[in-house]
Design goal:
By secondary structure, the chain is of the alpha/beta class. It folds into 2 domains: 133 residues, no CATH class; 247 residues, no CATH class. The protein is 31% helix and 16% strand. The chain has an 8-stranded mixed β-sheet with strand order 5-6-4-3-7-8-13-10. Strand 5 and strand 6 form a beta hairpin. Helix 4 crosses helix 6, helix 6 runs parallel beside helix 8 and helix 12 crosses helix 13. The longest helix is centred in the middle third of the chain and has 28 residues.
Length: 419
């Protein structure tokens, strides 16, 4: 994320909407702070009892309040004088609110959405971009980097992570990768004027060429399956993977299938068995999705790579796999978070460093997005990644040793500011 360093940031401040004072008073609180309710005190904008007007941040215009006093409070982490708050209300809440950093990043969200044709009637931003060619090109570059992160993540993590070596070696000369839950607007690049859809297969071929050459693969079969894939299935399409010397490193075969990833779909379409499965931002714990059939269709013992938009989502998705007995081992960092049972039974570390992992994805893009539930919260698509083996925890890998050393806990797991 070199882009963040240009703003003087070493890390993206993901969770900055202040919520603890509201959650303590209203455990059932479910409003979208700063979107359909005041970002500071939680007053619903649709409440008939409220006569206060909606006040937007004058700079980014993406965070809303019920009064100027609430807006000023949210912009100042040290302010404790507002009538709706006191020091006890926010004790332990490390979120900074609508700081200048958050406001700057949200202003860039306006630019990115306009060039990506996602925001309608934003005449002010369109006029500014028309006058500032550099700002417009920077926004286009950020959007492109988000789309390109899918190719880069698949190619580089499978190449550089020794964890996937045995599966690639066992695949012999023909590696089959299933991208599960794929969409036209994500992995397949079909809904943005900033990228050319015709380039998507060439982009995957270019990205995967080094993996093919290094692992001496003749073919990489990349299969995209998901209900948001193109309705007309794309039949097997071949691209040459070119090495640095201009020679052919192998063939990339890509195809798409529109539908839920199930055993029936795989059989009906005679889709070859996956050597590795990939999930981009699956949201296993999201109530809108049911992943049980898809996960049941994957043979036990299959390595997987999963990305999430935020650290908290990654933790939740790993816990889902653990609770449903679908992950053979979990990374030490997450075992520490999940508690004593995970530490005693499920925490393992490989002597050769090829065990499960959870960490930031260095191949994510530069586009920062605004959360749809908390207005001060930010995320970058594919920013966190989890890798492991889909298998029952009762079948532990051989030659593992248990680890009992303590590691730093992640206090974000207690932050109710869900993205």
């Amino acid at each position: 994320m070199d882009f963040l360093r240009t703003l003087g940031l070493e890390d993206l401040p993901e969770q900055q909407t202040k919520t603890m004072h509201l959650m303590a008073r209203h455990p059932e609180f479910a409003l979208k702070l700063g979107l359909d309710s005041c970002c500071a005190c939680g007053t619903p904008f649709t409440s008939s009892s409220s006569s206060r007007v909606v006040v937007d941040c004058p700079t980014c215009q993406r965070v809303s309040y019920c009064s100027e006093a609430c807006r000023a409070h949210d912009a100042s982490a040290g302010d404790r004088d507002h009538e709706s708050f006191d020091a006890e209300d926010e004790e332990g809440d490390t979120a900074m609110g609508h700081s200048s950093v958050i406001c700057t990043l949200l202003t860039l969200c306006n630019n990115d959405e306009v060039v990506n044709d996602e925001t309608k009637d934003d005449d002010k931003t369109m006029q500014l971009l028309a006058q500032d060619a550099r700002a417009k090109e920077a926004a286009i570059d950020r959007v492109r980097s988000e789309y390109e992160s899918y190719c880069a993540t698949v190619a580089n993590v499978l190449l550089q992570g020794p964890f996937y070596g045995p599966a690639i070696e066992a695949a012999s000369k023909n590696l089959v990768i299933h991208v599960i839950g794929a969409s036209s607007d994500g992995e397949l690049w079909q809904k943005s004027p900033c990228v050319q859809h015709s380039d998507v297969w060439n982009a995957y071929a270019d990205a995967l060429a080094e993996l093919a050459e290094t692992r001496k693969l003749d073919t990489i079969n990349l299969v995209f399956v998901g209900p948001e894939c193109p309705k007309e299935n794309i039949p097997p399409t071949t691209r040459n993977m070119t090495n640095v010397e201009g020679g052919t490193a192998g063939e990339l075969v890509v195809q798409t299938y529109c539908g839920e990833y199930t055993t029936d779909l795989l059989k009906q379409n005679e889709i070859p068995k996956a050597d590795i499965c990939i999930f981009f931002n699956p949201g296993f714990t999201c109530p809108d999705y049911d992943w049980s059939e898809a996960l049941a269709a994957i043979p036990r013992g299959t390595p997987f790579l999963m990305t999430t938009n935020t650290e908290l989502e990654g933790i939740a998705d790993c816990q889902y796999l653990l609770e449903n007995d679908l992950i053979q081992a979990i990374p030490p960092m997450l075992a520490e978070i999940f508690g004593s049972e995970a530490l005693a039974i499920h925490k393992y570390e490989d002597d050769d460093g090829t065990g499960p992992f959870f960490n930031e994805n260095p191949f994510c893009g530069n586009r920062v997005r605004q959360s749809g539930t908390m207005a001060n919260d930010l995320f970058v698509k594919n920013r966190w990644m989890l890798g492991g083996i889909l298998d029952s925890r009762t079948r532990q890998p051989p030659n593992k040793r248990r680890v009992t050393s303590q590691e730093g806990n992640n206090s974000k797991v207690h932050n109710p500011a869900l993205i």
